[in-house]
Every structure is written in C-alpha cells, then in structure tokens.
Amino acid sequence: MNADFTPILVLVGVAALICTAMVTLSWVLGPKKITPWKQAPYECGVAPVGDARERFPIKFYLVAMLFILFDIEVVFLWSWISVFRDASLDFQIFSFWAIMIYMALWILGDAYVLRVNAIDWDDAVSLDPAKLVDEAEVPIQTVTTLQPVAKGAAQ
C-alpha cells in the first residue's frame, strides 16, 4: 500500500526542496539595500494615490465567484472522463446520467447568469443613474512623491 504512494511522496519532497532552495537562495543572495521606496507600504513602481478605503465595485467579486463556480466543472468532468472508459458498464450508465444532470444544471445556471446580465461590464447599464458622475465633477488627486527618510529619524 505504501509503495503505491512513494512516487507522490517523492514528488512532494522534491517540490518542497526546490521551493525552500529558491526562497533561501533569494534571501541569501539578494540585495539588502534599504531605500524609502522599498520601505513604502505599496511598492510596485506606482506612487500610492487616494484612500485605501475607497469603494470597490461589487461586479468584480461577482465575476470572480462566477468564474470559480463555472470553473469547478472542469474538475468534475476531467476526473469523470479519466475513469469513464475503463469502468464497468453499470458505472458508465450511472455516471453518464449523473453528469448529464450536472451539465443540465450548469447550463441552467449559465443561462441565468446571462439572463440577469451578471457579467455585463457597461457602467451605464449596471449602475443606478444617480451614481453616474460627470467627469468634470470628479476631484483630481495629486500624486505625492516619497521623500527619503534620514537614518535614525523617529517614525
């Protein structure tokens, strides 16, 4: 029984060893120069602008959830397809109808998503007209640059 899982355990061990080596080597060999830009809470080449607590449109979360729900079908179908051909006839008949019911429900869910325009990205259609703002009314925020911090200065 344990011999059946030996290749998997070897694969997990090699993957863990490679991950540990990569993280350790990047820490040991990487540059250690501390700069104000590296100490900034948001480092990716763009100066932080605006408030961190601004509202985020819910449609992005909705699309992410729909992606997860509809992407799970691949997990079910791939595992089913991999065992379907070599299985017994009783299993093939039962699993075929189980997958057909699953796919019918998936198509119904997909039709519902399309019917209610859950993945519609047009703000003029999906937002309340009172929330649409003219561009002239939006305040322009200025970009502030980071100033170098002297060593030993109180933070």
How would you characterize the overall build of this protein?
This protein is an all-alpha fold and 155 residues long. The chain has a domain at 46-137: Methane Monooxygenase Hydroxylase, Chain G, domain 1, CATH 1.20.58. It is 55% helix and 0% strand. It contains five helices and no strands. The protein has helices at residues 6-29, 36-39, 58-84, 89-115, 123-126. The longest helix is centred in the middle third of the chain and has 27 residues, at 58-84. The radius of gyration is 27 Å and the shape is flat.
Helix and strand arrangement:
Layout: H1 6-29, H2 36-39, H3 58-84, H4 89-115, H5 123-126
Helix pairs in contact: 3-4
Based on the model shown, name its key terms:
mainly alpha; Methane Monooxygenase Hydroxylase, Chain G, domain 1; flat
Distance between the termini: 59 Å
Under CATH, the topology of the domain at 46-137 is which? Methane Monooxygenase Hydroxylase, Chain G, domain 1
Secondary-structure class? mainly alpha
What's the count of strands? 0
Backbone shape: flat
**Can you identify the CATH class of the domain at 46-137?**
Mainly Alpha
